[in-house]
Amino acid sequence: MSKLTVLTLIPNAGDRLARCLESVPWADSLFCVVDPKTSDGSDEVARRYTERVVVHEYVNAANQRNWALPQITTEWTLVLDADEWVSDELAARIRQIIQDPASLDGYDIKRLSYFFGKLILHCGWHRDYNLRLFRTEKGRYLEQRVHSRVVVEGAVGRIDEVMYHDTYRTFEEYFTTFQRFTTWGAQDAYDKGKRARLVDVTIRPLLRFFKMYVIRRGFLDGYHGAVLCGLGAFSVFTKYAKLWNLARVNREPS
Known about the structure:
The chain is an alpha/beta fold. It contains seven helices and eleven strands. It has two domains: 163 residues, Spore Coat Polysaccharide Biosynthesis Protein SpsA, Chain A; 79 residues, no CATH class. A hairpin with an 8-residue loop joins strand 9 and strand 10. The longest helix has 28 residues.
């Protein structure tokens, strides 16, 4: 019988972690990797659900997961963030997959997200699929600072049963992550040889807003959708402004 480990990275998420871990009581193992900077008792919350809680220096999510994966001995791994949880329908589908000898090597899972307490059904967020379930020996994360994805050696399928994501509840939460991700995104782009053009800090943010708000019908999510689309555009502007600044401080010609 195939077994599965749920891998969860633990930041300051004590108000959400219990719901995450309580959604996977059927898993054979829980492996929680704690950021040593965690200070809100999230590690103690994790220990209520599993003895396998370890502290490891956090560089970025990809690095943390790649450190953890070789220590997982089950055939399958399900990666969950501390602010995510599995629906009953998804749990049943995952259990079916891991027991089927004909299953593929990895699966993209549909994710629906809450923003400031509202479930977002447009803005492009309704089409959010993440590769989170895979045969442990087949998957490794790309070494990049932000939005890294797992690469699976083999065939990948899709699961339409839903996982949920309780994303930003306040502007303070949003801008804490925003600052880190735009900086990392700019650095990743710079390291790959990309440089900011004038169009990137003028037209590209406007196109992001238009795509999210009009094409992806973000207006149907009301004020939440308008704010989300505006912040999405601002994040694009900020990332490219930071990319421009990297070249400037390194005295590259504009």
